[in-house]
Amino acid sequence: SSILAVRSKLNGFFNWLLERQHIEINPFSKIPYPQVSYTDRRAFSSKEFETICHAVNTKISWATLLIKKRNIALIMFLALTGVRKEELLGMFISDIDIERKFITVRAETSKSKRTRIIPINSQLILYLADYLDCRKNLNTVSFWVSGTCDRPFTEHGTKHLINLLTRITKINCHLHRFRHTFATNYYKQTHDLVGLHKLLGHRTMKMTLSYLRSLPDEHLVEQMQRMTIDEFI
């Protein structure tokens, strides 16, 4: 997949040179794209996610109650919204509307450079409200706050948290796995591919489909059992 990404970018660059007549031929024009097969399951299993939640709630002694509440809310936020790391860390207090139950992912924090709205799951509201009550005396406009002082939670802080969870749980807790977990479970429970595409903020449906490789085989069995010739078109 890394070779595919580099090949695609180089192809675009040489096409740019070709259009401006800096070169006579794109050297990549006759080089085929590598065939990539994504077989790894990136989403957490239910047991893995339960282990992570248990570690955050009870196995780790956090320095303050605020840090504990933040980390609990942050893990649930990732699992129930599917936001990217940059979108997570770029959240402002004003982006979270508890009353109207929606989250605004601003264009300047999004990889697609487009603003999108994510409805807040009813279970997530409880964790967010609990965290907000704990951080109510802080002044930073950032939604996620540092555990050391009144300032935004940083990428370094996120890396420290993920490394700690990985060490405690013995599970690879890479942040992007939460996005895959959200995508897999949203689709498994709703079968709403168009909605998932909008929620993840992808430019193409192909990218959204790549997030569903973690669907278990049991899901296909369930769907096949629902199929009936009485509803053939």
Per the principal axes of the C-alpha atoms, what is the gross shape?
A: globular
Helix content: 40-55%
**Elements, N to C (H/E):** HHHHEEEHHHHHH
- Count every beta strand, where a strand is a DSSP E run of 2 or more residues: 3
How is the biggest beta sheet arranged?
A: 3 strands, antiparallel
Q: What strand order characterises the main sheet? A: 1-2-3
What is the beta-strand fraction?
under 5%
| Coarse structural class | mainly alpha
How far the N terminus sits from the C terminus, by CA atoms, comes to 39 Å
Q: Gyration radius, to the nearest Å?
A: 21 Å
Mean pLDDT score: 90
How many DSSP H or I helices? 10
Which ranges are low-confidence, i.e. pLDDT below 50, for 5 or more consecutive residues? none
Descriptive keywords:
three-stranded antiparallel sheet; 10 helices; 233 residues; mainly alpha
Please describe what this structure looks like.
A hairpin with a 4-residue loop joins strand 1 and strand 2. 23% of the residues are buried. Strands 1-2-3 form a three-stranded antiparallel beta sheet, with no helix packed on it. It has ten helices and three strands, in the order ααααβββαααααα. With 233 residues, the chain is mainly α. The chain is 52% helix and 4% strand. The protein is globular.
